[in-house]
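We were asked to recover a plausible sequence for a given structure. The inputs and outputs are reproduced exactly as logged, with field labels preserved.

PROBLEM: sequence recovery
POSITIONS: 181
GIVEN STRUCTURE:
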């Protein structure tokens, strides 16, 4: 995302009017969690949460038109997909599940997301999972195994491989970097 697009995102009143009830509810939950982190004096975790919130808002914004016009079917599908991913990525990691929830063929959903968002649905799911993982690693004292379980991985090894592939460091090393050790 280019820096020039960032101010557009924060036309908050106009933007939030375009959010679905599910998306707005998720944004409000982000703010509640952020408030709790700040009250607990967990600055690093709060910063990570702000990053996750901004990313989510950017993804929501990407599905809305720049000018006032009706959303295309592709934009509607992408908006619904991103919302479902943010709500269910801990339990569901497969594009087929999301396509089923939307009554779409997985290949059709993949094509629409790729053409509209210029990324694959699997990448969207991976990024949402990564944000959740980073948030849990930075804001809780849960073990890597417990985080792996919460995020729906088969075992800690699969979670570690996923995390390392996305960040080039292990979950344990990520947590150590946050603590400054």
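RECOVERED SEQUENCE:
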């Amino acid at each position: 995302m280019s820096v020039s697009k960032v101010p557009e995102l924060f036309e908050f009143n106009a933007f939030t009017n375009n959010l679905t009830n599910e998306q707005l509810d998720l944004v409000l939950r982000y703010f509640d969690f952020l408030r709790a982190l700040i009250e607990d004096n967990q600055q690093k975790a709060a910063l990570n949460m702000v990053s996750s919130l901004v990313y989510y808002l950017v993804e929501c914004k990407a599905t809305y038109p720049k000018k006032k016009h009706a959303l295309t079917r592709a934009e509607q599908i992408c908006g619904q997909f991103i919302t479902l991913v943010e709500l269910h990525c801990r339990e569901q990691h497969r594009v087929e599940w999301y396509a089923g929830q939307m009554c779409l063929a997985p290949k059709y959903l993949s094509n629409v997301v790729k053409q509209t968002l210029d990324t694959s649905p699997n990448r969207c799911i991976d990024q949402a999972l990564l944000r959740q993982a980073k948030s849990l690693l930075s804001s809780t004292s849960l073990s890597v195994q417990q985080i792996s379980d919460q995020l729906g991985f088969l075992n800690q090894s699969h979670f570690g491989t996923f995390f390392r592939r996305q960040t080039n460091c292990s979950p344990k090393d990520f947590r150590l970097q946050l603590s400054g050790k």
